[in-house]
# Entry
Amino acid sequence: DAMVIQNPRYQVTQFGKPVTLSCSQTLNHNVMYWYQQKSSQAPKLLFHYYDKDFNNEADTPDNFQSRRPNTSFCFLDIRSPGLGDAAMYLCATSRVGQGAQPQHFGDGTRLSIL
Amino acid sequence: QKEVEQNSGPLSVPEGAIASLNCTYSDRGSQSFFWYRQYSGKSPELIMFIYSNGDKEDGRFTAQLNKASQYVSLLIRDSQPSDSATYLCAVRSWNAGGTSYGKLTFGQGTILTVHP
# Structure
């Protein structure tokens, strides 16, 4: 089945130790998004790629970076995680075109900071 | 600032009743409207989307859109305990560059509890 796959499902890292989260898709969608979601809050968009074009949200901290080496894969790098970065990180994809073009989410990676 | 407002609830309904979830949005340029269901600890799952005024039905779910009032709702008929979850309203406006996709703005979500 075509889908959005995130790895790992759970990630534990130490304060200040770089961490990378992975997202892959078999939907062949042009756009890939990274969201941060904290408990009882709405998902917050960090950035997105439209093909190779990177689009950062104005309030995304510099600590968060992203790479998209090809259509299928996208990575979220957190250079120096702080305690406030503990959250669920969600990857989503969507097509480009007329109509609604909903976003399809992966299962998420829950990040804990020690 | 584009805003999407939802009543956070919790909304509690008995099994078999109709659950009504409401959402208002501030951006008149919004094009498409989505309802996602999110179980605790899980990722959002798309339930329905709507982009024309009126009603759209899919099984037990009906989405209603009124662009003049900037209001979108989700009705769940014959509610089941398995419907207990947080329901996120999301609104899409056209990307600033005019490309044919758009970022979503999410509401805070409404917690729905269906009790037997």
Summary: The two ends of chain A are 36 Å apart (CA to CA).
